[in-house]
Write a structure and sequence with these properties.
By secondary structure, the protein is α/β, with parallel strands linked by helices. 41% of the residues lie in helices and 13% in strands. It is globular, with a radius of gyration of 19 Å.
Length: 289
Amino acid sequence: MPFEQIKYEKEKGIGLITLNRPDKLNAFTSQMAWELIQALDQADEDDEVRVLVFTGAGRGFCAGADLSAGGGSAFSYRAEPIDEFRDGGGVLNLRIFEMKKPVIAAINGPAVGIGATMTLPMDIRLASESAKMGFVFTRRAIAPDGCCTWFLPRVVGIGQAAEWLISGRVFSAQEALQAGLVHRLLPADDLLPAAMEKAREIVENTSAISVALTKQMVWRMLGADHPMEAHRVESKAVYFMSSSDDCREGVNAFLEKRKPLFPMKLSRDLPDFYPWWPEFPFKKSGFPG
């Protein structure tokens, strides 16, 4: 099914997702959320895609929820009772969080509200020098979305997260860099090429299986209450990978001073202990609506 509010393209192991409502600064809608989850499902199941890059069409990344239909218009994904309601941005971000493949944000312009929170579960964030970001919920008399009260303190620390969330102010890309929210600033014309270059580096030099395990271990251990939890799952991963075809190829490539050609595929070769946590309940296009 063709997408209407996003574009999804593939290029040499990289999936490029572009938010595609440039006349609205890529404002977020329930349809866009549904399409993004469809694209994420496709990419996660496609062994040809090793890394995903997110960006926005035109001069903005995402101007937040599309409120053109009035207050709350972008958030009514599920009716009463209240316990059955699910924030659409949260469902999207949980799906990003569950990805087996690394996700890179190329923040090319304004990113506010869900436009900012959707970048939080991504693994690498690059931004244009002219980009602005903001968690503006309190200034719209709404509540934070996208699971950002979990993600943001883990990315930048509780003090900075609280100040941004409570004030709702918009801040510069330079402030985002200083706080560690983004990893690098680039001139606008260099941003997407730099994101694609970083993606190619991962595609050409890493094992898909090792990346999937590493990505999830890093995120999941943020909530662990003792390093023993990390030790247990790392031990399983080390045991599994050390006798794998990918490990043999990695060692041989190093000794032969060449790029590796890792043979293992995510669709068939993940260890049987993956996942070691309860799976995300809205996979396979289970977006509420």
